[in-house]
Design goal:
The chain is about 35% helix and about 25% strand. Helix 2 packs across helix 3 and helix 9 crosses helix 10. The C terminus is likely disordered.
């Protein structure tokens, strides 16, 4: 059961995923012990989870979307098989049980062709389209807008100022040493410096310094994942929009500015802009489409694909609905 304090804690963690329990307690006006107890309950029951991820925008490759249309009843099995693969970043079941959407990891060396060649045979997949990601408009969340339940001034102490002189200005793939550090953070983004030092063989000071460098330079970020229905979000969808190329940047930025939009990216294919929208209800989604998206006159065409279930998020498998 999720209550108002749980929602406030989720809001704080979306703003600062690695904030200490004492920092969050000061914002919420409760004790450190209360925050720690709430967080551990939410995490242990799979309702809330923090992960540390590489910023694909900085790595030089944003990866791919794959949309697979399946015969009725086949989507769940195909999605589960894709979720078990290490080269998929996340997997969702769309539009009933007839469509699967997955994101291919940016560091997958063989690209979408290798994955497509290994899809189940027998006619269960009737159509596949691959979409290269060209630009992300929402990549490092400064607080997921749809989770906001506290006024901006209350959570302001949790917001970190931008690094004035990040030590790591490089682009391209991360080093093997950095990946050894990000590996444990992909499982638990709130892992302590001491535990990270034990996992990597580094000193605590080296762990702390390198994390500050990677986060400060934008090479990595921390992200809050949660069971959306448990927090009251029961209507989510992907929007596939076609806009004139000259308007792509403006429309992408406009979409990213709406609190309901958790993700927006320019991509190849018949639709050149994809956005993931999170709402409390179908009525709220309808109002978002008519009032906000409908107000962007330059959109030529829009397709809406309801998200039925999320099978995999980032680096961990979840079975919670979305």
């Amino acid at each position: 059961m999720v209550d108002d304090l749980d929602r406030q804690l989720a809001h704080c963690l979306s703003v600062s995923p690695r904030a200490t329990f004492s920092q969050i307690a000061a914002v919420l006006g409760v004790s450190d012990q209360t925050v720690a107890r709430r967080y551990r309950r939410l995490r242990s029951t799979g309702l809330l989870h923090v992960v540390g991820l590489e910023n694909r925008k900085k790595s030089g490759s944003l990866g791919w979307f794959l949309r697979l249309r399946c015969v009725p009843g086949a989507g769940s099995g195909i999605g589960a098989a894709l979720a078990r693969r290490p080269d998929t970043a996340w997997v969702q079941l769309l539009s009933g049980d007839t469509e699967v959407l997955c994101s291919l990891r940016s560091d997958a060396r063989e690209g979408p062709d290798s994955l497509l060649a290994k899809l189940p045979r027998g006619g269960r997949v009737v159509e596949v389209s691959a979409h290269s990601l060209l630009h992300m408009f929402t990549v490092i969340p400064g607080g997921l807008g749809f989770l906001a339940v506290l006024p901006p001034e209350q959570v302001a102490p949790l917001r970190s100022p931008p690094a004035s002189d990040p030590a790591d200005r490089s682009n391209g793939p991360l080093s093997e040493a950095d990946r050894a550090l990000l590996g444990p953070l992909g499982v638990d983004g709130r892992m302590s410096h001491a535990d990270l030092a034990a996992a990597t063989g580094w000193s605590e000071s080296s762990v702390r310094r390198r994390l500050e460098q990677l986060a400060g330079s934008g090479r990595m970020y921390f992200h809050l994942q949660l069971d959306l229905p448990a927090f009251g979000f029961r209507s989510a969808a992907w929007l596939w929009l076609s806009v004139p190329p000259s308007e792509l940047q403006a429309v992408g930025k406009a979409l990213a500015g709406f609190p309901e939009v958790a993700y927006a990216a320019a991509c190849t294919g018949p639709a050149n802009l994809a956005a993931c929208v999170i709402c409390h209800s179908d009525q709220e989604l309808y109002q978002f489409l008519t009032d906000k998206v409908g107000g962007i006159e330059v959109i030529d065409r829009i397709e809406t694909s309801p998200i039925i279930r999320t099978l995999k998020q980032a680096s961990v498998m979840l079975t919670a609905g979305a």
